[in-house]
Design goal:
It is built from four helices and seven strands; from the N terminus they run ααβββαβββαβ. The protein has about 160 residues and is of the alpha+beta class. The chain has one domain. The strands form two sheets. Strands 1, 3, 4, 5 and 6 form a five-stranded antiparallel beta sheet that branches.
């Protein structure tokens, strides 16, 4: 009897690891991320030092509540989401799954030039049903690439020389 229980448990772990919807979506996140995930900077925007926060060095004109105008009147901040699989794991339960692609772009309004972009793939849910929060998986990882890192790489502080 113990051998049967152990075998069933082992088969359940193997199934959950390699053949579940969650595992399949994680592999798809990795596959798509390898194609176009991450940060790409095409041109930097050199800004005067007064456009940066003195304490942390971040740009001080970014207001995420303003949508496409989050970077003020000179730049467009575009965020597009594409759902490969819609679901609501937070409200419907951890067993639900969702997978999406987030695409952030920074465009210079004066000539509509794309300065930089960031693509991230994300899976949430696919866990055993229960009252807990769903797991998630993203590529690239937040430490490697994020919209904050994109802003930091596109907007650079000008080096003003003293005469």
């Amino acid at each position: 009897m113990k051998k049967i229980i152990f075998l069933m448990l082992l088969l359940s772990v193997i199934y959950a690891t390699f053949f579940s919807e969650k595992a399949r979506l994680d592999r798809e996140v990795d596959r798509l991320c390898a194609i176009d995930g991450g940060i790409k900077v095409y041109e930097t925007a050199e800004l005067p030092p007064d456009k940066f926060d003195k304490k942390y060095g971040q740009i001080n004109f970014y207001d995420p509540t303003q949508g496409v105008n989050a970077l003020g009147p000179e730049y467009i901040y575009q965020w597009d989401m594409h759902y490969y699989k819609k679901g609501h794991p937070v409200s419907q339960g951890a067993h639900e799954t969702v997978m999406r692609r987030d695409h952030f772009k920074i465009i210079q309004k004066s000539d509509m030039k794309l300065l930089g972009e960031f693509v991230k793939y994300h899976r949430a849910g696919g866990d055993f049903p229960g009252p807990w929060m769903p797991s998630s998986y993203h590529c690239p990882g937040t430490l490697k690439a994020s919209s904050t890192i994109l802003l930091h790489e596109v907007f650079v502080k000008s080096t003003e020389e003293d005469n």
